[in-house]
Design goal:
This protein is an alpha+beta fold. Helix content is 19%, strand content 34%. The protein has a seven-stranded antiparallel sheet with strand order 12-11-17-18-19-16-13, covered by helices on one side. The chain has a four-stranded antiparallel sheet with strand order 2-1-7-8. It has a four-stranded antiparallel sheet with strand order 3-6-10-9, with helices on one face. α1 crosses α2.
């Protein structure tokens, strides 16, 4: 409501008009946006906010704690440098968000209904694959939103009812604790998931990538080949990749586990309990984003950790021991130049190299470069 200076004078002269102007907000509007008055930014009030989970309005709350991100950089200590330290990017973690409020009939009932729906999804095995978002909106003095935070992958971790006692007259307070996967919208795209596939047996896509991968290779004797006196000690020089803590979640866990068992080869053969060797294992492809390896599954270990009400597994943890039988673990990117290598030759052999290349003038060989078949003369680095 905008008023003129003459109207303002009349209002100030008449107490009744002044009261009406204050009640209608005319004076407040004038002082906020009138001529020569600087507009002040609207500030969010800590005691005014609302919470929404999914499409459910959880009502008003008394307090909200835990809107924080801990970046946890990794500290690197370097030998010989004892007066400083270096920091590498670590893993971001988010503490639980804790909400508290007085118990109110309608709002508390809505909260209980939402918790029941969450528990039903946990019981039927669909809770692992569902994602729920929550929004916490901060309000100003006029009830307008000034800031909001969207929490991704929200799940309840704790609910506590009020402490009841006949010895106190305090307001009954309930407490809700939520865990989430972060509130940075630009960073919520998940990393590419790993897949183990066969051209004939199908494929298994893991819900969560391995927490770590170990690459091992040994040239020491580790196998006994043959029987009786004709025992031959052989060397196991295969390149092995161990992918641990690979998670399978959802209603298709039983089918995925069956595929992994088929990937590990046929069962024991014959009455002597002979097991298949690497040649009998089906060829597989382990894919993770741009990483692709031709492997065979030599060892499989699966732990079924969660079941639904009908006894069907809905969560499993697997450890895979893969043998790379073809190609590289990290294929060279297309078009990427090979990294230059520094090779030093033995200075004492320059005469032998020059004579073998039929070069009698070392200076001429150094200038031409290729006369020694690619080998450099002493002191020349490539």
């Amino acid at each position: 409501m905008a008023i003129s200076p003459s109207q303002l004078g009349g209002m100030l002269g008449d107490p009744n008009q002044t009261l009406n102007g204050l009640t209608s907000g005319g004076l407040a509007q004038l002082f906020r946006t009138g001529p020569g008055v600087r507009a002040t930014p609207k500030l969010g009030l800590a005691m005014r906010f609302r919470v929404t989970v999914g499409d459910v309005q959880l009502g008003l709350w008394k307090s909200c704690r835990g809107l924080r991100a801990d970046f946890k950089p990794e500290v690197v200590r370097v030998a010989g440098d004892y007066v400083g330290q270096y920091h590498l990017p670590g893993e971001v973690s988010y503490p639980p968000v804790v909400l508290e409020r007085a118990v109110q009939r309608d709002q508390s009932e809505q909260l209980q209904q939402w918790l029941v729906r969450v528990l039903q999804s946990w019981q039927d095995g669909t809770g692992d694959s569902t994602r729920t978002t929550a929004r916490i909106t901060l309000l100003d003095a006029d009830g307008e939103a000034t800031a909001s935070w969207v929490l991704y992958g929200v799940r309840p971790s704790s609910w506590a009812g009020p402490d009841l006692s006949a010895d106190t007259n305090q307001v009954a307070v309930e407490r809700l604790e939520l865990v989430h996967e972060g509130f940075f919208p630009d960073l919520q795209s998940r990393a590419a998931t790993a897949t183990l596939s066969s051209s004939t047996l199908g494929s298994v896509t893991f819900a969560y990538n391995p927490a770590r991968m170990n690459i091992t290779r040994s040239s020491r004797p580790s196998q006994l080949v043959g029987q009786g006196r004709s025992v031959v000690v052989a060397s196991d020089s295969a390149l092995r990749v161990s992918a641990g803590e690979v998670l399978l979640v959802g209603t298709g866990v039983a089918e995925d586990v069956q595929k992994l068992i088929a990937f590990s080869g046929p069962p024991s053969l014959g009455d002597r309990g002979q097991t298949p060797n690497d040649a009998d294992l089906p060829p597989l492809t382990f894919t993770w984003g741009q990483l692709s390896m031709e492997v065979k599954l030599s060892t499989l270990n699966v732990n079924l950790t969660r079941f639904d009400g009908n006894g069907q597994p809905v969560r499993a943890q697997a450890t895979l021991d893969l043998v790379v039988y073809q190609g590289d673990i990290f294929p060279r990117r297309a078009g990427a130049p090979a990294r230059p290598r520094s090779v030093w030759t033995d200075p004492a052999q320059w005469r032998q190299r020059a004579a073998a290349a039929d070069v009698d003038d070392p200076t001429r060989a150094q200038a031409r470069g290729a006369a020694t078949g690619g080998a450099r003369l002493p002191g020349v680095r490539r």
